[in-house]
Amino acid sequence: MSATEVVPCMLTALFAAAAVRALRQAVLTRAPGCRSRIDHLLHAAMALAMAVMPWSRGALPGLPQSVFFACAALWFPLTAVRSGRERQLSATARRLPYAVGMAAMTWMSYRAAGHSHQTMAEGVPTADPALHLGHSMGESRAGSVVTGVLALYLLTCALRSLTRDMPALRKTAEASGTSTCLKGACNRFWDGVTALGTVVMLLMAH
Prior knowledge:
The protein has helices at 6-28, 35-52, 62-78, 85-120, 129-163, 169-176, 180-205. With 206 residues, it is mainly alpha-helical. Helix 1 (6-28) crosses helix 7 (180-205) and helix 4 runs parallel beside helix 7 (180-205). The longest helix has 36 residues, at 85-120.
């Protein structure tokens, strides 16, 4: 295995494991209603798409993926609880990182579709090459800004999730005598590593 294949293989393993975990949670969840199950299924779909993305960039239909994950990005804030303004804001804030993760997947699918379209159009002469070059540079700058904002937010979420339980995890676990805190720490760990993997994928796609 070459050095350039190590990172894609690690990302594939990470997101494949995340997809299996999300599917397991979707099956085993006992939360009332269907929101929790749909959440897990959306996470599984995103993880599966991310797992194959390093090896099939441009091969999968980008537009349907973009539309699907854009709808998924809207699902998380729109399905926050609606009883009480403060509670709704809190629930929306908790679900915002998932929405941004889906938005990042939407952006990567969109860029992959655009790259595929550009590759197919290579060799076609343009009436004004200078105008085409300026337009491409403008799109590149705007794309860099979007990628940077998404990556910075997800990196912040990843670091927060991965470091939140470190100082007092053992003490809290011993004091509680239950597995609740460990389950929460496990969920935050997976949120953190998948957000970190998404950041790497964003930068690789860019």
